[in-house]
Amino acid sequence: MSIKVIKPGLSTTVQDLGRPGYYHLGIPISGGMDRMALRAANLLVGNNEGDAVLEAVFMGPELKFIVDSVVGVTGGEMVPKIDGVAKKTWTSFEVKAGQTLGFEYLKHGARTYIGISGGVDVPIVLGSRSTYSLGALGGLKGRPLIENDKIPIGLARKNVKIGKVVPEKFRRQIVGDLIKLRMLPGLYWHRINDHSKKTFLADSWGVAPEADRIGYRFQGGNKLEFVDRKQPFGAGSDPSNIVDGCYPYGSIQVPGGTEPIVLHRDAVSGGGYFMLGTVISADMDIIAQLQPHTVVRFESVDMNLALKARAEQNSLVSGLFSIFS
């Protein structure tokens, strides 16, 4: 069973919950950038939470269905259309064999998740079906979808219900003039002076056009000032350089002290730029849905608050499971 790609959209890839366990070898975790939305798309159509879905960025694909399927669309708001007839997002609906699924323009958010009953059945590579384009790994031939691709679909569970709905409280919407991203100050926080520590947290930063699965770049704040030191051997001449270190998921690096970059699902695992800190795990889904020019502010938190936020996020995920169990 398969689905034919008529139009691929701007960048549509196969993603699941990722391939942890290989980061120390330089292979990123990959997977859906908005994990809550990915889970919701799967649960709507009777799949396991970690089955593979399609992640579409800014523009949806056009897909010709070869077999009757149940579909759920979550995440960034792009209204799905079956042969031109609009369907609701965050709600399961049927697509008959021979029908075409398309999308209206994006209304808010950045990434939309398309769950299909049975899941996208591409081969498992290192424990995951997720696409890592830079390494040509996973997904459909290790790349985003292109015209005339045929997407293999697994066997759906029996009696998948039409019209199931994800309640509003589980639908993340990025609204407001200023988005806060909570961060833990990191190993190299001491490398900037006290004035820059204050301005970094007080400044408003806009999402730059260079924002993708590797990382989100932000611009518009003050340039950081570094504490004077003699650069160690191997660190390079710029004060933002360090002797190569490991990059945790969510790390905030600031090359040259000018534009922060938050490393996301397809980021490299190490390098020679210092890290101010790390965005807490509970806020990484938020970054996935930020459009260019969205204004954010970084907020420093301690470990206790970060762990509390993670527990709240886990509780939200458990609540979502309970609805569909």
Termini separation (Å)? 27 Å
**How many separate domains make up the residues?**
2
Oligomer: single chain
Number of strands: 20
Helical content band: 10-25%
Short key terms for the protein model shown above:
325 residues, Cyclophilin, 2 domains, 4 helices, 20 strands, elongated
Overview of the structural elements:
The longest helix has 22 residues, at 303-324. The strands form 4 sheets. A 7-stranded mixed beta barrel has the order 12-19-16-17-14-13-20. The protein contains 4 helices and 20 strands. Strand 6 (80-82) and strand 7 (85-86) form a beta hairpin. It has 2 domains: 2-170, no CATH class; 179-315, Cyclophilin-like (Cyclophilin, Beta Barrel), CATH 2.40.100. Helix 1 packs parallel to helix 4 (303-324). The relative contact order is 0.17. By secondary structure, the chain is an alpha+beta fold.
Structure in a nutshell:
14% of the residues lie in helices and 30% in strands. With 325 residues, the chain is an alpha+beta fold.
Q: What secondary-structure arrangement, pairings included, does this model have?
A:
Elements: E1 2-7, E2 12-15, H1 35-44, E3 53-57, E4 62-65, E5 69-77, E6 80-82, E7 85-86, E8 93-95, E9 100-103, E10 108-116, E11 150-152, E12 179-185, H2 194-202, E13 205-211, E14 215-219, E15 241-246, E16 251-253, E17 261-263, E18 270-273, E19 275-279, H3 284-288, E20 295-300, H4 303-324
Parallel strand pairs: 12-20
Antiparallel strand pairs: 1-4, 1-11, 2-3, 3-10, 4-9, 5-8, 5-10, 6-7, 6-9, 12-19, 13-14, 13-20, 14-17, 15-18, 16-17, 16-19
Helix pairs in contact: 1-4
